Amino acid sequence: MEKTFEKYESKYKAVADKKRLHIMNLLCQHGAMCVCDMVPLIGMPQSKLSYHLKILLDAEIIKKETKGTWSYYSLNQKEVDNLLSEELCCLFR
Prior knowledge:
Pfam families: HTH_5. By secondary structure, the chain is α+β, with helices and mostly antiparallel strands.
C-alpha cells in the first residue's frame, strides 16, 4: 500500500502547479508538440518550460518521442486517466 501512496504522491505533486497544468492543457488541445512550438503559446522561456516538462516526464504524466533532432511531447492519457481512476477512489472507500 505504501508504494501505491508514493506513486500517487509523485504524480499529484507534478500536476500541483499552475504552469504544468497549462502545459498539460496545451498538449490536450494540440496533441504532440515540440518545445519550440510551446514557448510562444505558454509565454515562458525555453529553459523554464523544459524544467516543467522534465517534472511531468518523471511522473509519467507526459510522453516524449524523439524524431531526428526534435523531441515531441504528448499527454500520457493512460496516466492521466489513472489519476482519476476507480483504483484511487477505492483506496478511500
